[in-house]
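Worked example 2:
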Amino acid sequence: MLALRNLTPRTIRKLTSSSRFIMHVAARPSDLVGNTPLLDLAPILKQHGIDGDDAPKLYGKLESLGPCSSVKDRIGRSMIDQAEKDGLIRPNYSTLVEPTSGNTGIALAFLARERGYGCILTMPETMSLERRMMLLALGAEVVLTPKETAVSGAIAKAQEILAELGDKGHMLNQFENPANPKTHRETTGPEIWRDTDGKIDYFFSGVGTGGTVTGVSQYIKGSEEFSLPPLNPNLYTVAVEPQEQMLLTEAKGGEKIGEQGPHKIQGMGAGIVPKVINLDLVDEVVPCHSDHAMDMTRELWLMGLPTGVSAGAIVHAAVDVLKRPEAAGKTAVCIIPSFGERYFSHPGFNTIRETAENLKKQPLPEPWDNRKYGFDTERG
Protein backbone atom coordinates (compact mmCIF):
# COMPACT_ATOMS: atom_id res chain seq x y z
CA MET A 1 0.00 0.00 0.00
CA LEU A 2 1.14 3.56 -0.75
CA ALA A 3 0.39 6.59 1.43
CA LEU A 4 -1.10 9.27 -0.83
CA ARG A 5 -0.71 11.95 1.82
CA ASN A 6 3.08 11.87 1.35
CA LEU A 7 2.96 12.33 -2.42
CA THR A 8 2.77 15.44 -4.57
CA PRO A 9 -0.51 16.16 -6.44
CA ARG A 10 1.26 15.48 -9.76
CA THR A 11 2.42 12.03 -8.60
CA ILE A 12 -1.04 11.24 -7.26
CA ARG A 13 -2.62 12.10 -10.61
CA LYS A 14 -0.19 9.84 -12.43
CA LEU A 15 -0.77 6.94 -10.08
CA THR A 16 -4.54 7.23 -9.88
CA SER A 17 -4.88 7.54 -13.65
CA SER A 18 -3.44 4.04 -14.02
CA SER A 19 -5.46 0.87 -13.59
CA ARG A 20 -3.87 0.14 -10.21
CA PHE A 21 -6.09 0.82 -7.20
CA ILE A 22 -4.26 2.53 -4.33
CA MET A 23 -5.46 2.21 -0.75
CA HIS A 24 -4.72 5.08 1.60
CA VAL A 25 -4.75 3.54 5.07
CA ALA A 26 -2.78 4.74 8.10
CA ALA A 27 -1.50 2.08 10.48
CA ARG A 28 -1.93 4.22 13.60
CA PRO A 29 -3.17 7.72 14.49
CA SER A 30 0.30 9.27 14.69
CA ASP A 31 0.89 8.34 11.04
CA LEU A 32 -1.65 11.03 10.17
CA VAL A 33 0.42 13.86 11.66
CA GLY A 34 1.55 16.50 9.15
CA ASN A 35 0.83 17.40 5.53
CA THR A 36 -1.87 19.85 6.55
CA PRO A 37 -3.37 22.05 3.80
CA LEU A 38 -3.20 25.78 3.18
CA LEU A 39 -6.43 27.80 3.10
CA ASP A 40 -6.78 31.14 1.30
CA LEU A 41 -7.77 33.79 3.86
CA ALA A 42 -8.63 36.42 1.22
CA PRO A 43 -12.13 36.93 2.75
CA ILE A 44 -10.50 38.09 5.99
CA LEU A 45 -8.13 40.45 4.18
CA LYS A 46 -10.99 41.88 2.13
CA GLN A 47 -13.03 42.43 5.26
CA HIS A 48 -10.19 44.62 6.55
CA GLY A 49 -9.81 46.63 3.37
CA ILE A 50 -6.94 44.65 1.87
CA ASP A 51 -8.15 44.03 -1.68
CA GLY A 52 -7.29 44.68 -5.30
CA ASP A 53 -4.93 43.38 -7.96
CA ASP A 54 -1.80 44.15 -5.93
CA ALA A 55 -3.16 42.97 -2.59
CA PRO A 56 -1.00 40.55 -0.59
CA LYS A 57 -2.08 36.94 -0.24
CA LEU A 58 -2.55 35.31 3.15
CA TYR A 59 -2.77 31.54 3.53
CA GLY A 60 -3.57 29.75 6.76
CA LYS A 61 -1.83 26.43 7.41
CA LEU A 62 -4.55 24.33 9.00
CA GLU A 63 -2.75 22.50 11.79
CA SER A 64 -6.27 22.18 13.19
CA LEU A 65 -6.70 19.21 10.81
CA GLY A 66 -4.17 16.96 12.56
CA PRO A 67 -5.33 13.74 14.27
CA CYS A 68 -5.83 15.55 17.58
CA SER A 69 -6.52 18.90 15.94
CA SER A 70 -3.45 20.98 16.76
CA VAL A 71 0.06 21.89 15.67
CA LYS A 72 1.32 20.19 18.84
CA ASP A 73 0.62 16.78 17.29
CA ARG A 74 3.87 17.31 15.38
CA ILE A 75 6.10 17.95 18.38
CA GLY A 76 4.41 15.22 20.42
CA ARG A 77 5.31 12.63 17.82
CA SER A 78 8.78 14.07 17.25
CA MET A 79 9.74 14.19 20.92
CA ILE A 80 8.44 10.68 21.65
CA ASP A 81 10.07 9.25 18.51
CA GLN A 82 13.41 10.76 19.57
CA ALA A 83 13.09 9.59 23.18
CA GLU A 84 12.34 6.05 21.97
CA LYS A 85 15.30 6.19 19.58
CA ASP A 86 17.58 7.36 22.42
CA GLY A 87 16.34 4.61 24.76
CA LEU A 88 14.99 7.10 27.30
CA ILE A 89 11.50 5.58 27.49
CA ARG A 90 9.96 2.17 26.99
CA PRO A 91 6.33 1.04 26.64
CA ASN A 92 4.47 -0.42 29.61
CA TYR A 93 7.07 1.01 32.00
CA SER A 94 7.69 4.71 31.44
CA THR A 95 5.37 7.57 32.41
CA LEU A 96 5.53 10.83 30.51
CA VAL A 97 5.33 13.92 32.74
CA GLU A 98 4.93 17.27 31.04
CA PRO A 99 3.93 20.86 31.84
CA THR A 100 1.58 21.98 29.07
CA SER A 101 -0.98 24.64 28.22
CA GLY A 102 -3.20 21.91 26.84
CA ASN A 103 -2.57 21.03 23.20
CA THR A 104 0.87 19.50 23.74
CA GLY A 105 -0.72 17.49 26.51
CA ILE A 106 -3.45 16.26 24.18
CA ALA A 107 -0.82 15.21 21.64
CA LEU A 108 1.21 13.40 24.30
CA ALA A 109 -1.92 11.79 25.73
CA PHE A 110 -3.01 10.27 22.43
CA LEU A 111 0.52 9.13 21.62
CA ALA A 112 0.98 7.67 25.11
CA ARG A 113 -2.27 5.73 24.67
CA GLU A 114 -1.18 4.60 21.19
CA ARG A 115 2.24 3.39 22.33
CA GLY A 116 1.70 2.16 25.86
CA TYR A 117 3.02 4.90 28.15
CA GLY A 118 1.58 6.46 31.28
CA CYS A 119 0.94 10.20 31.04
CA ILE A 120 0.72 12.89 33.76
CA LEU A 121 0.17 16.48 32.65
CA THR A 122 0.42 19.68 34.68
CA MET A 123 -1.18 22.89 33.45
CA PRO A 124 -2.47 26.28 34.67
CA GLU A 125 -6.02 26.24 36.00
CA THR A 126 -7.05 28.67 33.23
CA MET A 127 -6.98 25.93 30.60
CA SER A 128 -10.39 25.20 29.10
CA LEU A 129 -12.70 22.50 30.39
CA GLU A 130 -12.80 20.94 26.93
CA ARG A 131 -9.03 20.40 26.99
CA ARG A 132 -9.18 18.85 30.43
CA MET A 133 -11.97 16.50 29.31
CA MET A 134 -10.02 15.43 26.22
CA LEU A 135 -6.98 14.60 28.32
CA LEU A 136 -8.98 12.60 30.82
CA ALA A 137 -10.83 10.78 28.03
CA LEU A 138 -7.47 9.82 26.53
CA GLY A 139 -6.45 8.26 29.83
CA ALA A 140 -4.06 10.95 31.07
CA GLU A 141 -3.84 12.26 34.63
CA VAL A 142 -4.35 16.04 34.86
CA VAL A 143 -2.84 18.22 37.60
CA LEU A 144 -3.85 21.91 37.70
CA THR A 145 -1.59 24.68 38.99
CA PRO A 146 -2.32 28.33 40.04
CA LYS A 147 -3.08 30.66 37.15
CA GLU A 148 -0.90 33.39 38.65
CA THR A 149 2.24 31.29 38.12
CA ALA A 150 1.46 30.61 34.43
CA VAL A 151 3.59 27.88 32.90
CA SER A 152 6.39 28.36 35.46
CA GLY A 153 4.15 26.85 38.13
CA ALA A 154 3.21 23.95 35.87
CA ILE A 155 6.90 23.27 35.23
CA ALA A 156 7.70 23.26 38.96
CA LYS A 157 4.84 20.84 39.68
CA ALA A 158 5.91 18.53 36.85
CA GLN A 159 9.44 18.43 38.23
CA GLU A 160 8.10 17.49 41.67
CA ILE A 161 6.06 14.62 40.19
CA LEU A 162 9.05 13.51 38.12
CA ALA A 163 11.21 13.25 41.22
CA GLU A 164 8.57 11.10 42.92
CA LEU A 165 8.43 8.67 39.97
CA GLY A 166 12.17 8.06 39.86
CA ASP A 167 13.47 6.22 36.79
CA LYS A 168 9.93 5.45 35.62
CA GLY A 169 9.24 9.11 34.89
CA HIS A 170 10.46 11.07 31.90
CA MET A 171 9.92 14.72 31.01
CA LEU A 172 10.11 15.48 27.31
CA ASN A 173 10.39 19.20 28.13
CA GLN A 174 8.82 20.83 25.11
CA PHE A 175 10.31 24.23 26.01
CA GLU A 176 13.89 22.94 25.66
CA ASN A 177 13.67 19.75 23.59
CA PRO A 178 15.54 20.08 20.26
CA ALA A 179 13.10 17.57 18.73
CA ASN A 180 10.51 20.36 18.94
CA PRO A 181 11.94 22.75 16.32
CA LYS A 182 13.37 19.73 14.48
CA THR A 183 9.94 18.52 13.39
CA HIS A 184 9.05 21.95 11.99
CA ARG A 185 12.42 22.15 10.26
CA GLU A 186 11.85 18.74 8.69
CA THR A 187 8.09 18.78 8.04
CA THR A 188 6.21 22.07 8.51
CA GLY A 189 8.79 24.21 6.74
CA PRO A 190 9.18 21.89 3.73
CA GLU A 191 5.39 21.58 3.42
CA ILE A 192 4.95 25.37 3.36
CA TRP A 193 7.73 25.78 0.80
CA ARG A 194 6.25 23.02 -1.37
CA ASP A 195 2.64 24.20 -1.19
CA THR A 196 3.50 27.83 -1.96
CA ASP A 197 5.81 26.70 -4.78
CA GLY A 198 8.60 28.58 -3.03
CA LYS A 199 6.73 31.87 -3.16
CA ILE A 200 6.55 32.98 0.47
CA ASP A 201 7.58 36.39 1.77
CA TYR A 202 6.06 36.50 5.27
CA PHE A 203 5.64 33.84 7.94
CA PHE A 204 3.44 34.39 11.00
CA SER A 205 3.38 32.13 14.03
CA GLY A 206 2.32 32.42 17.62
CA VAL A 207 4.86 31.52 20.27
CA GLY A 208 4.18 28.99 22.97
CA THR A 209 7.44 27.08 22.96
CA GLY A 210 8.85 28.81 19.88
CA GLY A 211 9.40 25.55 18.02
CA THR A 212 7.22 26.38 15.02
CA VAL A 213 8.60 29.86 14.34
CA THR A 214 12.16 28.60 14.80
CA GLY A 215 12.00 25.39 12.77
CA VAL A 216 10.10 26.84 9.80
CA SER A 217 12.42 29.85 9.66
CA GLN A 218 15.51 27.62 9.81
CA TYR A 219 14.28 25.61 6.84
CA ILE A 220 13.32 28.56 4.63
CA LYS A 221 15.97 31.12 5.66
CA GLY A 222 18.65 28.47 5.83
CA SER A 223 20.78 27.19 8.70
CA GLU A 224 24.49 26.46 8.69
CA GLU A 225 24.06 24.55 11.96
CA PHE A 226 21.75 22.04 10.28
CA SER A 227 23.35 22.20 6.81
CA LEU A 228 20.29 23.83 5.26
CA PRO A 229 20.90 26.12 2.27
CA PRO A 230 18.91 29.40 2.23
CA LEU A 231 15.77 29.03 0.14
CA ASN A 232 14.59 32.56 0.85
CA PRO A 233 16.97 34.39 3.19
CA ASN A 234 14.69 37.44 2.97
CA LEU A 235 11.70 35.69 4.54
CA TYR A 236 10.13 38.10 7.04
CA THR A 237 9.38 36.09 10.16
CA VAL A 238 6.81 37.48 12.60
CA ALA A 239 6.33 36.05 16.08
CA VAL A 240 3.01 36.84 17.76
CA GLU A 241 2.60 37.15 21.53
CA PRO A 242 -0.13 38.43 23.89
CA GLN A 243 0.02 42.18 24.45
CA GLU A 244 -0.56 41.50 28.14
CA GLN A 245 2.66 39.46 28.33
CA MET A 246 5.30 40.97 26.07
CA LEU A 247 8.37 39.02 27.13
CA LEU A 248 9.57 38.35 23.58
CA THR A 249 9.24 42.03 22.69
CA GLU A 250 11.33 42.87 25.73
CA ALA A 251 13.89 40.17 24.86
CA LYS A 252 14.24 41.75 21.39
CA GLY A 253 14.85 45.17 22.93
CA GLY A 254 11.34 46.56 22.50
CA GLU A 255 9.05 48.26 25.01
CA LYS A 256 5.99 46.71 26.61
CA ILE A 257 2.56 48.19 25.92
CA GLY A 258 -0.10 48.64 28.58
CA GLU A 259 -0.78 46.53 31.65
CA GLN A 260 1.12 43.26 31.86
CA GLY A 261 -0.23 40.10 33.47
CA PRO A 262 -2.60 37.19 32.75
CA HIS A 263 -4.05 36.95 29.25
CA LYS A 264 -6.78 34.91 27.52
CA ILE A 265 -4.91 33.54 24.50
CA GLN A 266 -4.49 29.88 25.34
CA GLY A 267 -1.41 28.26 23.84
CA MET A 268 0.63 31.47 23.63
CA GLY A 269 2.52 33.62 26.10
CA ALA A 270 3.84 30.96 28.47
CA GLY A 271 5.28 33.49 30.90
CA ILE A 272 8.85 32.62 29.91
CA VAL A 273 11.20 33.13 26.98
CA PRO A 274 11.54 29.49 25.87
CA LYS A 275 15.02 28.09 25.29
CA VAL A 276 13.77 26.47 22.08
CA ILE A 277 13.16 29.78 20.29
CA ASN A 278 15.89 31.38 18.20
CA LEU A 279 15.05 35.08 18.38
CA ASP A 280 17.76 35.91 15.84
CA LEU A 281 15.46 34.37 13.20
CA VAL A 282 12.53 36.58 14.23
CA ASP A 283 12.34 39.84 12.29
CA GLU A 284 9.48 41.30 14.31
CA VAL A 285 7.42 40.49 17.38
CA VAL A 286 3.82 41.68 17.08
CA PRO A 287 1.69 41.85 20.23
CA CYS A 288 -2.03 41.14 20.13
CA HIS A 289 -4.46 41.94 22.94
CA SER A 290 -6.75 39.12 24.06
CA ASP A 291 -9.82 41.13 23.05
CA HIS A 292 -8.53 41.65 19.51
CA ALA A 293 -7.63 37.96 19.30
CA MET A 294 -11.17 36.98 20.20
CA ASP A 295 -12.66 39.46 17.73
CA MET A 296 -10.64 37.91 14.92
CA THR A 297 -11.48 34.40 16.13
CA ARG A 298 -15.17 35.25 15.66
CA GLU A 299 -14.42 36.48 12.14
CA LEU A 300 -12.71 33.18 11.33
CA TRP A 301 -15.68 31.22 12.66
CA LEU A 302 -18.06 33.32 10.58
CA MET A 303 -16.11 32.54 7.41
CA GLY A 304 -16.68 28.87 8.26
CA LEU A 305 -13.31 28.18 9.93
CA PRO A 306 -13.61 27.09 13.58
CA THR A 307 -10.35 27.96 15.33
CA GLY A 308 -8.96 28.61 18.77
CA VAL A 309 -8.16 32.07 20.09
CA SER A 310 -4.45 31.76 19.29
CA ALA A 311 -5.35 31.59 15.59
CA GLY A 312 -7.31 34.80 16.04
CA ALA A 313 -4.23 36.47 17.51
CA ILE A 314 -1.98 35.28 14.68
CA VAL A 315 -4.38 36.31 11.90
CA HIS A 316 -4.99 39.68 13.59
CA ALA A 317 -1.22 40.30 13.62
CA ALA A 318 -0.93 39.18 10.00
CA VAL A 319 -3.68 41.56 8.87
CA ASP A 320 -1.98 44.47 10.65
CA VAL A 321 1.39 43.76 9.03
CA LEU A 322 -0.07 43.11 5.58
CA LYS A 323 -1.73 46.55 5.59
CA ARG A 324 1.73 48.08 5.23
CA PRO A 325 2.62 49.43 1.76
CA GLU A 326 5.67 47.18 1.48
CA ALA A 327 3.44 44.09 1.74
CA ALA A 328 1.72 44.78 -1.60
CA GLY A 329 1.86 41.78 -3.91
CA LYS A 330 3.55 39.61 -1.29
CA THR A 331 2.59 36.11 -0.11
CA ALA A 332 2.20 35.27 3.57
CA VAL A 333 1.53 32.06 5.48
CA CYS A 334 0.20 31.97 9.02
CA ILE A 335 -0.23 29.03 11.33
CA ILE A 336 -3.77 28.06 12.36
CA PRO A 337 -2.72 26.13 15.48
CA SER A 338 -5.86 24.34 16.63
CA PHE A 339 -9.53 23.53 16.10
CA GLY A 340 -12.08 25.73 17.81
CA GLU A 341 -14.48 23.26 19.40
CA ARG A 342 -12.26 22.74 22.47
CA TYR A 343 -12.55 26.42 23.46
CA PHE A 344 -16.26 26.83 24.12
CA SER A 345 -15.66 27.43 27.84
CA HIS A 346 -13.36 30.36 26.94
CA PRO A 347 -14.82 33.71 28.13
CA GLY A 348 -15.00 34.86 24.51
CA PHE A 349 -17.77 32.35 23.87
CA ASN A 350 -19.87 33.33 26.91
CA THR A 351 -22.58 35.06 24.87
CA ILE A 352 -22.92 32.14 22.45
CA ARG A 353 -22.98 29.64 25.30
CA GLU A 354 -25.71 31.61 27.12
CA THR A 355 -27.73 31.85 23.91
CA ALA A 356 -27.43 28.09 23.38
CA GLU A 357 -28.43 27.35 26.98
CA ASN A 358 -31.50 29.63 26.74
CA LEU A 359 -32.89 28.28 23.46
CA LYS A 360 -36.50 27.14 23.83
CA LYS A 361 -38.35 24.47 21.90
CA GLN A 362 -40.96 25.72 19.43
CA PRO A 363 -44.49 24.36 18.77
CA LEU A 364 -45.06 22.13 15.74
CA PRO A 365 -47.55 22.88 12.93
CA GLU A 366 -50.84 21.05 12.32
CA PRO A 367 -51.79 18.27 12.72
CA TRP A 368 -49.47 17.96 15.74
CA ASP A 369 -51.11 18.46 19.17
CA ASN A 370 -48.49 20.46 21.07
CA ARG A 371 -50.15 19.81 24.44
CA LYS A 372 -48.48 16.38 24.33
CA TYR A 373 -45.09 18.10 24.32
CA GLY A 374 -45.51 20.44 27.26
CA PHE A 375 -47.33 23.37 25.61
CA ASP A 376 -50.50 24.88 27.08
CA THR A 377 -52.61 24.65 23.91
CA GLU A 378 -52.89 22.46 20.84
CA ARG A 379 -51.10 25.09 18.75
CA GLY A 380 -48.62 25.93 21.48
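Residues 1-5, 9-13 have pLDDT under 50 and may be disordered. The two ends are 59 Å apart (CA to CA).
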